[in-house]
Amino acid sequence: MNFVGEHILSVAQLDRADVEQIFAVADKMTPFAQRERVTRVLDGAILCNLFFEASTRTRLSFGAAFNFLGGSVRETTDMASTSLVKGESLKDFAQVISGYSDVIVMRHPIDGAVAEFAEASRSPVLNGGDGSNEHPTQALLDLYTIKKELRARKMDLDDLRIAVIGDLKYGRAVHSLIKLLKLFRNITFHLIAPPALSAPENVVNELRETGHEVQHFEQLQHGIQGVDVLYVTRTQEERFSSSAEAREYKGLFRINQVVYSQHCEPETIIMHPLPRDSREAAQELSVDLDSHPNFAVFRQSDNGLIVRMALFALILDVVDKVEDHSAPVGWITDARKWD
Ligand code: CP
Prior knowledge:
Strand order of the largest sheet: 8-7-6-9-10
Oligomer: single chain
Structural class: alpha/beta
Bound molecules: phosphoric acid mono(formamide)ester
Helix content: 25-40%
């Protein structure tokens, strides 16, 4: 794929070479995200962040990534403060906003709404999560993290064994990650969910059709054995018809130090797209694992910065110009290392 000027709406747009290209550019972005160098390559460019659902990581890391490349960010975080509430169509909205921006990131509660917006946008649009459909940049940063963690174990993505745990029905990060992993060879998926929250049939069928192994589990302790990665997710309460209905599924699967040490292999990587639900009824991933060396969760959120910088650089065609517009950082003595 030639990324220049393209929308990124679904991981289905990407092939393996595209993913590897994004990761290679992300590697180059590391000194800028770690504040060793600054670049002004996107000086004068404007990102418009349109987030119509709650977000911590996606909104702020897209914004920070654009700032790290020298660009400016405009944001709307509440649909009620836009004229969409006066009946304006997404298409009119897109015509207008794309006149103000060089690139747009949108999160929307309805499946397919970001693609509908993109159809009328004159600027490239990145999907920051649409309903329970997809969250493509989350999947890219997750995969980048898995690759990096495996590298330390002298492994690569082919032949990966991964347990995906929790709300696999509504979890858009899960849907995108599974579809992205399909591009690699011989992946074993352990899908751990209650039957009512199992992964969409079409997603599972595509895995099998492309030669990957899929096993379903309802018992956590069986599914988390013999895998390289645990990918834990929360119950997506906002997609249920009521909090009471969501509560039926919270707390069903809990990974903590005891469960991990009894059932997982010693090298198993622990991941979660965040936010984790730390309320008493849920706690799908205990804080007692936070200091474990295999706990990669905050490395995931750090990696989100460089993966999103890479996407901006590719889409706005500045990959080869980043260095020319850069200088050492003058305002901080110790670069902040997070790798
Ligand atoms: N992982 C993720 O999408 O987090 P936010 O909802 O905080 O953006």
